[in-house]
Amino acid sequence: MTTARLRLDPAFTVGPVNRRLFGSFVEHLGRCVYEGIYEPGHPEADAEGFRRDVLELVRELGVTTVRYPGGNFVSGYRWEDGVGPREERPRRLDLAWRATETNEVGLHEFARWCELADVELMYAVNLGTRGVAEALDVLEYANIPGGTALSDARRANGAEQPFDIRMWCLGNEMDGPWQLGHSTPEEYGRLASQTAKAMRQIDKDLELVVCGSSGSGMPTFGTWERTVLEHSYDDVDYISCHAYYQERDGDLASFLASGVDMDRFIESVVATADHVRALVRSDKRIQISFDEWNVWYMGAEEPGTITGDEWPEVQHRLENVYSVKDAVVVGGLLISLLRHADRVTAASLAQLVNAIAPIMTAPGGPAWRQTTFFPFATTSRLARGVSLDVRVDVPTTTTAVYGDVPLVDVAATHDPETGDVAVFALNRATEGPLEVEVELATGIVSRVAEALTLHDDDLEATNTREHPDRVGLEENPTARLDGGVLHVTLPPVSWTAVSLKP
Ligand code: AHR
Q1: Residue 15 covered by a domain
Q2: Active-site residue identified among 35, 247, 292, 301
Q3: For residue 70, which atom of ligand 1 is closest to its CA?
Q4: Do 121 and 170 fall into the same domain?
Q5: pTM summary value
């Protein structure tokens, strides 16, 4: 059997694992909000209309922050429509997803939902059809305790205490031709800088995310990041990355290597940001907010392609049903994020419920976990403390898209407070199992607490309403510690997490 070898030593670290790495994303899109997190009249709905079964799954998923309200949606959104008495809220056309937005859920409801879910709210302002003034307005409304027209309006609308939103996205994917207000990097860079400066006049400690490219395949990728940051470097803390992966033309080997693409994407953006840092002579290092990532089979629902005569209120959009191999890839993408924990300090799995989501719901019916739920929930639970520097000695496999890639990919964490070590491993081999041997620094661990593997002989297997528990994690009985060396066997096309205790 092929063996992958590595050594882990808590003295060699990449950086702290920020809990914000396990964020997600709720957009007014399809059934993510309506019939997703919110469905008044559902047997599981609480007095405010929030589905308790979904809230329970969100907590189990281990989500830490949630980006809201979009996405493409935000670039045409008027935040004021979503506050005040419900019966007075306007119905509006949502141009991004060709829908009617009822505004039944807005800032107050979502902030309340975040409280119930125990997650941090990360808010995106509209820089598509709006600008500096509206960004200042929503900031004042949300964060100023009182004594001004907008903050007092919030109090009158039922929120005595400010929402105190710390992380703000300056628009969404402004490089995308499908985006309302699509801009050149010069136009957007200036607008982002002006907006950020103005917002900081209200609160200098906000954490601000400027839009990077909507994907590394965009023709302006690289130039976009450089130009936008040349305009806004001193004003912002983060630049965003977005990436979606799918298996194309049955090329499983390349699909399993999606994390290699994510690595290159992150490293290119870090290099570009650091180049601008030198140009502007700054001490600060820009962080990455990887605030949209997932597997997504776009098909006919690629942004900007949706047409028709109807503007439905609730529609089934982007309801991808994820398979075992999709979940293995999601596990691999989490490994890539952990490996870059020094610069990627926030990330959002896009999205949370129904639309390209780990959680699915049936209207009036149950909620269930998609296959992708499991690697996310397990990584969020076990990846604590610092990300360790991992160098794996392993043969490579050839892929059509990414060339030679390591057969096994590994990330590991060490929690200095508890002494716990966690190892996350992806086996890209499509035939036969692989052995992983992890030599641990002397005496740091004494036992395997748990070892869980996601694998199935049927790579197409999914969880559905009828069979919600068809795919899940299974205990991996091969994991054992022998003389300070962890041995674990990985089945082909699989993702594994091992938790070790001192
Ligand atoms: O997550 C779905 C969409 O993908 C988002 O609205 C947009 O930002 C991206 O193109």
Answers
A1: no
A2: 292
A3: 6
A4: yes
A5: 0.97
